[in-house]
Amino acid sequence: MTDLQRSKLLVTRTLPQLSQARLDKGFDGVDIVQWKEDRAIPRQEFLKLAKGADGILCLLTDKIDAELLDAAGPQLKVVSTMSVGYDHVTVSELEARKIALGITPGVLTEATADTTVLLVLSAARRLREGVDAVIQGKWGTWSPTWLLGSQLTDKTVGIVGLGRIGVAVAKRLKAFGVQKFVYQGTRPKKDVEKEVGGEIEFVDMDRLLKESDVICVCCALTDKTKNMFDYEAFSKMKNSVVFVNTARGGIVEQNGLIRALREGKLGSVGLDVTVPEPLPTDSELLSFPNCIVLPHIGSGTLETRTAMSEIAIENVLSGIKGERLPHPHDA
Ligand SMILES: O=CC(=O)O
């Protein structure tokens, strides 16, 4: 006999240990179906397993669009993504079907800001070239002129997207002696000076591109920010600029970036995000010694990923019960 009260929860990957242990113990009245392989769930499998789900706990690698929602069926109440970004979700389709969307804000701010600073310093101090030289036996005698980078002291840093992560990046970089911050975003923010602990000015994009010694991309990927950094934007930057993107690959028009790098227009580049992900190993992006690419590990600490998966579980369980999500996307 079927129990009409039971709900189905689809989880699209194995979660960090603590949260996985919770799933393995199970939740009253919930049947859990989980894709446990350590790779993104193949689309056909996703469409098949989604059928009849009341809640879906997914990752940023899983496209949530009309096709998937149709495959799931009208009983679907909640999609909970274990990410703060939700550009992989067609929000209008969820809204049209009154399906709640949960995200994991706040908990990944510190780890992602740490990664941003890591890339700023690594790019500015030519970490990739240094490490490669050591490994390849190209480390000669100490030289006063070899592998000279740049430092943050007295520099201007441009932050694109001064949300939680942007502010956390500015606070960190302030400690390295940055003289001034400029920022771009949807609107100027009140009281950021106090928060950042130094001079910070809302400027137009042109000024940000021209005046910044370091540019950090910390905004969400939206229709407005897609391909925002194209060849023209890179051409306006100082040719010593340190350009870092830890947000989403799609904010950068990658062919324009490659062209700018090829033409020696940029000082150094640090990326945690690319298009596509994973970046194919034959991508020209990987051929530039002054470009460091990380494999989208901005939030990749055990503490943060555990906090994210715990929030994702709370969101999906609340949604299945028809309750308000603790962390909805539109809070
Ligand atoms: O990129 C990571 C996230 O959006 O959580």
TrEMBL record:
Keyword Ion transport part of the UniProt annotation: no
Domain D-isomer specific 2-hydroxyacid dehydrogenase NAD-binding, chain residue ranges per copy: 118-298
GO MF annotations in UniProt: glyoxylate reductase (NADPH) activity; hydroxypyruvate reductase (NADH) activity; NAD binding
Transmembrane segments: none
Domain of life from the UniProt record: Eukaryota
Sequence similarity: Belongs to the D-isomer specific 2-hydroxyacid dehydrogenase family.
Name the UniProt record assigns to this protein: Glyoxylate reductase/hydroxypyruvate reductase
